[in-house]
Amino acid sequence: MNSKSQAGNAFSFSWWHETVIGVLLLVVLLVAGWLVPGFLKPHSQLLLSRHLWEFAILALGMTLVILTGGIDLSVGSTMGLSAVVFGCVQTSTGSLVAASLSCLATGLCCGAVNGGLISQLRLHPLIVTLATFAAYRGIAEGWSQGNSYSRFGTNFSSLARGSWFGVPLPGVVFCVMAIGFAVFLSKTPNGRFLKAIGHNERAAKFSGIAVERIRFWLYATSGLLAGLASLIYVARFDTAKADVGKGFELDVITAVVLGGTSISGGRGNILGTLLGLLLIHETRMLVSRYWRSDELQWIVIGSLLIVAVLAYQLIARKPRS
Amino acid sequence: MSNLLPPIGHALRPARFGVRFSKLVRQRETGLLLLIVLTCVVVGIKDIHFLSCEVWREILVRCAATAIVACGVMLVVVTGEIDISVGSLMALLAAVMGRMISEHEWDISCWIGIPATLGLGTLIGVFTGCLVSVGRVPSIIVTLGLLTALRGLTTLIMGGQNIDRLPEGLTQLAKQGLCGVPLSILAAVGVIGLTSVLIHHIPLGRRLYALGSSAESARMAGLSAVRLKLFVFGYTGFLTALATIVDVPRLPKIEAGIGSEFELLVITCVVVGGVAISGGHGRLSGVLLAVVLMTMIRPVLTFMDIGEAGEKWTRAIQGMFILLAVVTDSFFLRRQRSSGGEHTA
User: Fold this and answer.
1) Which of residues 287-316 of B touch A (CB under 8 A)?
2) Which domain holds residue B55?
3) Is A297 in CB contact (< 8 Å) with chain B?
4) Which of residues 170 through 229 in chain B touch A, CB cutoff 8 A?
5) Is the pTM of this model over 0.90?
6) Which fold has domain A17-25+41-316?
7) Do B343 and A122 touch (CB under 8 A)?
8) For residue B215, what is the domain's CATH number?
9) How far apart are CA B4 and CA B9, in angstroms?
10) Is residue B12 over pLDDT 90?
């Protein structure tokens, strides 16, 4: 975690990681097309993609967080708490709009609590979000007492299951947001400030960047996205329970890091995250379709993460002089 | 706690009292101890059985595995790295050990199975250390990958079935132990002793703290970061194997989900115990008290007699403790040195 220097040492060709991941993705797709007939057809890809969207939305926020050298372990738990709030509000008021808004608001609040603790008290993000990882999930469990809320009506579930010109609605939402995030990151001053903070926080602060304010909004955004992901998840399964989003944080972090965002901050982009997400998703689908085994996909994804980062360290880093 | 105080000559001067007091208050151990005692008193008033030997024996038995692994993870965190794979490693080792020595499976003698488990644990630890130190992959990434991969491997080894019927001798030893002291507590005491010797009495310990405080200075002072990191990860792997061996035979059967979120409990204890996540800071006594406090939460909730409803809040309370710990930390540190743009915890 201490190696802050790696981004600066990379070769002048700065797209190494994206290239490696892109090639890997192509290989996986070719193998999949060869092993599983019909895997590459647009129809089956769209069908399989329904597992992807919640992760993808979380990954956008996580990319920004990791880019500044932080981490957010609490997104999965935030999803759980938002889902429980959604269920509670829906059953007590009967209004889906109020429930959805309160679900998003819960996400935003959870993120804002993280952001406040990290930016105002200057605590380490890993610790704060580890604490809220336990706390949010615990509150969700204690509040719901293990009950699940379901049957929100077909209008609501069509939000997640419906499609627009063949693309699932959550996918449309994600694509719009991904473009927005990419533009924000590369074309606006605030986006570039994020990288500056990740590179060298103190230098960023001394050059007049409002580091703490940016950091606060960053974690708040991550929480809001978790609320949104929770909404989609609940709509997709038509059930809200305290264990919504369990284990998501690790998968999301894996995707982001696999996509070339440096865990110590300063390097990374949305394109890389997209590739990382797709690589994990396609690998997972291939393994589960061809070998029909869950455990194998965990092994493959875990090793993929280690090997990809190891390869990047070996290829793209000059040895220390 | 008396060894934490300054010499008596100092203490007698009234002007020093405030300093001494605020120093004592600032010690993480004081806060943790107060919290534990306070909880005991409150719960004891409600139900005196909470203070009985049997209850505390049970609590200590539950502490043991966490304490053993926390000793290793603490050293990892002290050197500025992190290990979040101990839970999955524990599951893998439990599965391998179960497969080897269970009477329903390969039925190998314990005398081969147990050393093999210890060896495998150490080997995986050293492998992690290799990736971190030689491969220069950040430790959070390596252990995140292992967390996922080892869990998958465990499920594969278990093949969807639970393992039971471990050798009678081992189960008995784990439950009743030697002379009435459970095996896990004996092992925990041994490991705590070993670790405190490591930290306080041989140069290795100080080197670990040096590496964690400043990797660059440690390198210039001629310390080998590679070797030290190999050691801490190998040690953690070894301790995880030890914890598996003494703790798992207590359970009626070995399931694939064993040790899930154990890594988070261990990290929580290390952090609540006052070890700085950025490395170079922290004491073993704090970590051990934190282990007791974290393990107490569930029995306390049971004794407070708030039923099933109350136990669901266990995790929320855990989270609150971490927050409390880091927030008080930052509060005291701020007052100590009011300037400083770095993260505190």
Assistant:
1) 308-309, 312-316
2) 35-270+282-329
3) yes
4) 215
5) no
6) ABC transporter involved in vitamin B12 uptake, BtuC (1.10.3470)
7) yes
8) 1.10.3470
9) 14
10) no
